[in-house]
Prior knowledge:
The structure holds 2 protein chains of 2 kinds. Chain A is an alpha+beta fold. Chain A contains 27 helices and 20 strands. In chain A, strand 13 (481-482) and strand 14 form a beta hairpin. In chain A, 36% of the residues are buried. By secondary structure, chain B is of the alpha/beta class. Chain B folds into 2 domains: 11-252, P-loop containing nucleotide triphosphate hydrolases (Rossmann fold), CATH 3.40.50.300; 255-333, no CATH class. Chain B is globular, with a radius of gyration of 22 Å. Bound molecules: adenosine-5'-triphosphate and magnesium ion. Magnesium ion (MG) binds at residues 74-75, 113, 189, 220 of chain B.
Amino acid sequence: xxxxxxxxxxxxxxxxxxxxxxxxxxxxxxxxxxxxxxxxxxxxxxxxxxxxxxxxxxxxxxxxxxxxxxxxxxxxxxxxxxxxxxxxxxxxxxxxxxxxxxxxxxxxxxxxxxxxxxxxxxxxxxxxxxxxxxxxxxxxxxxxxxxxxxxxxxxxxxxxxxxxxxxxxxxxxxxxxxxxxxxxxxxxxxxxxxxxxxxxxxxxxxxxxxxxxxxxxxxxxxxxxxxxxxxxxxxxxxxxxxxxxxxxxxxxxxxxxxxxxxxxxxxxxxxxxxxxxxxxxxxxxxxxxxxxxxxxxxxxxxxxxxxxxxxxxxxxxxxxxxxxxxxxxxxxxxxxxxxxxxxxxxxxxxxxxxxxxxxxxxxxxxxxxxxxxxxxxxxxxxxxxxxxxxxxxxxxxxxxxxxxxxxxxxxxxxxxxxxxxxxxxxxxxxxxxxxxxxxxxxxxxxxxxxxxxxxxxxxxxxxxxxxxxxxxxxxxxxxxxxxxxxxxxxxxxxxxxxxxxxxxxxxxxxxxxxxxxxxxxxxxxxxxxxxxxxxxxxxxxxxxxxxxxxxxxxxxxxxxxxxxxxxxxxxxxxxxxxxxxxxxxxxxxxxxxxxxxxxxxxxxxxxxxxxxxxxxxxxxxxxxxxxxxxxxxxxxxxxxxxxxxxxxxxxxxxxxxxxxxxxxxxxxxxxxxxxxxxxxxxxxxxxxxxxxxxxxxxxxxxxxxxxxxxxxxxxxxxxxxxxxxxxxxxxxxxxxxxxxxxxxxxxxxxxxxxxxxxxxxxxxxxx
Amino acid sequence: xxxxxxxxxxxxxxxxxxxxxxxxxxxxxxxxxxxxxxxxxxxxxxxxxxxxxxxxxxxxxxxxxxxxxxxxxxxxxxxxxxxxxxxxxxxxxxxxxxxxxxxxxxxxxxxxxxxxxxxxxxxxxxxxxxxxxxxxxxxxxxxxxxxxxxxxxxxxxxxxxxxxxxxxxxxxxxxxxxxxxxxxxxxxxxxxxxxxxxxxxxxxxxxxxxxxxxxxxxxxxxxxxxxxxxxxxxxxxxxxxxxxxxxxxxxxxxxxxxxxxxxxxxxxxxxxxxxxxxxxxxxxxxxxxxxxxxxxxxxxxxxxxxxxxxxxxxxxxxxxxxxxxxxxxxxxx
Lengths: 767, 333
Ligand SMILES: Nc1ncnc2c1ncn2[C@@H]1O[C@H](COP(=O)(O)OP(=O)(O)OP(=O)(O)O)[C@@H](O)[C@H]1O
Ligand SMILES: [Mg+2]
């Protein structure tokens, strides 16, 4: 499965492809020139050029009508040779499969999966041998029976024969595939039990990135390992600060189903205390928290260096002035005693600055622009990063540190002067969702629905911001003050605010009146203002923290938030998962939580799976026809089958060997080690020179394998779509469909060129 | 035989002999220079040399016969001309183009030794398929197919798959496919093999008709009588070597003999004529039905080639039978 919706890199793959194909074409041209010269001496060169020009002019004079003539001939041949008998086999298989597959699994979605898997696999594996056989036998048989003679003595270019054959077999394949696909679709619909039928959809997941926060509140890549040998999932400790953090991007209202965002999850419960049977059945409690914490995202990176950790904490708390002071202190230290600061702290500074500069850019909105600060952090990063080049840094001497300190000061100055603005525009909002339970032995996935409009009991900061916003709005409208005191109609005005309950409205009125009397607030120009010139948010924040505004009704300050307006920044949504029970753990891996977009109908994914299967079969046709232009039928079948099996099952393995990621030594060295009964870590019992020699030979064979791994297509690409559909997911275009399409064309084009050349430059005499 | 040809052709026959043929002559449609072909096995070892240093010209508008015993390299030569096989050495030009150029095929028709066609197609489909290879439009293909099927006499069997055809029928459809593009140059490899006597006759008429239309025809055949009837020039190959090349009428002219052909004579008449001959000192005269002369030529060439490999015979030698084989010439009048 692919989790990253990385757009398929057409340009990159294409240029790589061009290079490889260029090398192949160059190589084969060189080889044929050599052969021509070796056979015919000096006259080989003009022969070669003549051959080449005639090949190119053939390419230029291809005619669609001739190609289609051969296509339809091929098609007729296949049909009249009873290739379509394959349908009978398919029908029989489907008939009997029905008996075995019904009731094959107790779980609904698995029932559906089994049927889908069966149909998709059967289709692929039934057509495959037929396709290999047809395409590998066509041209050799044509040559053997010499019917090719009457074709090539017509103006048919040999390239046209190749293309026509490929197209013809391709058409048969696609036809059979489509018919089987439709039959299979109907069969699935009818065969699976009634209650499972609504499981037949294509889920469209959006996967996020997973990070962890450890029990000390610091970020980390993994959670706790509870001792599973299977290290797939990481665990979050219960009743602690530990959390799993999922970050999703591009979350927009399109993701909503009706009015809710669906989170589908599958967590693992791990208990260190085995309670009663009842408690096991009840499972352990977990909770999602939606988090929008601009300050943490921007400044969290500074926590990585010891010297900047304190500053990071201040920044995260929103105390920008204090943080600026800390930064100035640090700058002073850099200026005076740069060598006293350990390297990791410089690294922390650089890393923090880099993260800040990136994250701040995303925060830009209509109300505030963070570009200047982002640029300051970027300068800081650039300067500090110079230290990573030790030589250059040493050469530059202390001027680098001067520079770094200067950049720190610049940042600090900005923070100081813009502290209020930053505080206003970098909120922290954490909205806990209702808890859920996970049992140890649960089956299937859970779906939690998050309403777009969220009811949320405000925490201190959010309350402060809410009141600041509300009061300043009402104040600007002139509804707060009348004369020198709070307007008598203020309570009525507040009653119109939906989110303020009557009791809380009264409280607010009381507190404001008190503040006015105590001189913390004053009235100027018929408007209320904070006496010491502070903004509204710090003023209310202060009141909230002094617990002067504790809600008077039992519900608390109940606010309504909008998922997209209040909790996402530029489509970026952060969801944290915590475990609530002490001594319990919640385990998870990246695919365990995803946003489930509106489902697509089943046929969408099914069609895509059939499509990629079709591309795979077409590629087999292409390879079969190509090899049959060079060798006879049986050999060609063998070649194609080998290519397919290696490409399907061992491509990955091959790449691992080539890249050195697979444990083990080279071919001969390993063989010798086995012979000598020695361990790879000990090495060969031979002289240094011999060992070098053997390794040299082995590196050649590995190089050869590297070449082969480029030439044999990775057939597993084509299977990924089916794998998605079998698991009930839609097929992502970028991860499955486009790579399949690209792989098909990437191999098809050189194959056609090669096959055309092979057929052109061979005598059509069966030997 | 010539005067009895089928009505469709007889009309133009004499125009041809005296007319077009002479005008068109000497423009080479096929030039072969020092052509050799060695068949090799998979490992590149020589199996057999099928053609040895062959040089030939075929002129526009003539019917050219390629003769020789089995395995003498006739088919190999044709295949090389068509680009099916690549020569080991030597040069060829067909219709002014090298043999490896596919575009020359636009104006060529080829009837292979055996009809290698797609057995799962019927006659209509076969012709349609080959027509499409010539980029002909559907209407054109249909029209041409009708004509050709009519011509080769397969109207009744046009919807049957070729695998049900008899040998002669297959030959006929093979011929139709060779003519689908109204070719300028027709290569026929043993056109009459497998045909019934009527078919053979029709084939010969057809060849003459093609010639009348100004087409060039090259044919291989073992039916020497047929070759003699239709060919303007012949070449005899023996084990890949060219043994004899020349105009049929020149080659078959026997200069120190004279043959008189009359309607049947009474014994008295024969006696009279013999008396006259005696008076003129003619010795060794005989009164026999004449034999197919080409057969004689052919047998002699083959025999002598076997005895004296590597030698080519001149028309003179052939004609006078002095190819130092005394016995060869004298067996007839
Ligand atoms: N594909 C081949 N591989 C090896 N040798 C071949 C092949 N085709 C023909 N030959 C040989 O080449 C020689 C010439 O064969 P070719 O078919 O040209 O003779 P031909 O004159 O057409 O004979 P025929 O009158 O029997 O048709 C023969 O010795 C034959 O055995
Ligand atoms: Mg032959």
